[in-house]
Amino acid sequence: REALCASVEGLQPEGEVAGELAAARAHWAALAPAPEPQREALEARFRRAVERIESRLAALEATATQRERLQRLIEAAAPLGEAQNPKAARGRLRGLIEECHEVERTGADVTALRQALEAAAARLDDRDREAAAQREQRQHGNADRFATLCARLEGLVTADNLRQAERQLKEAQLELRQLGPLPSKAMEDQLRARFAAAREALAARLAE
Fold this sequence. Notes:
Radius of gyration: 39 Å
Mean pLDDT: 91
Strand content: under 5%
Number of helices: 7
Order of helices and strands: HHHHHHH
Helix content: over 70%
Distance between the termini: 121 Å
């Protein structure tokens, strides 16, 4: 029993230690009872040795599990910056950030995960700015086309060929319905008022 105690006390949490521990426990159980004076001390010594190695094995297993979890989270964060749906990607990113905080509270090193999350967030921010710039460019393009329509109608008011002017008025109204958003409501109101004034002036000429 003393030899078994020493054997278990010398175990290291590596290799086939789980099998060695199981064999030691089975051997311990199969031994004849120790003399009464030493029994309690030997039982306690063996129990402490077993608990020590089991605790170390559990800690290693937890560390390995945490490491695997961190790797999964890093792999999940990596593609988010280029996701087809940025809005959904941000929702997923928020969930990963919460998981990062949860893992960090266990004392694990989350540096690599933080870097992956920050990189994904930065790329999504860049894409938001790019999309906003493209949206603004389209809106200004719509405003320029609207102003061109207004100018075209204003020029038709004094046109000599009223039949052609009437056809161009219909074309302008159709094109107006196809225009997208403008940069601001104020600009839209101003251009619509300008277009309406030109349309009314041209309609008055057509009615002559």
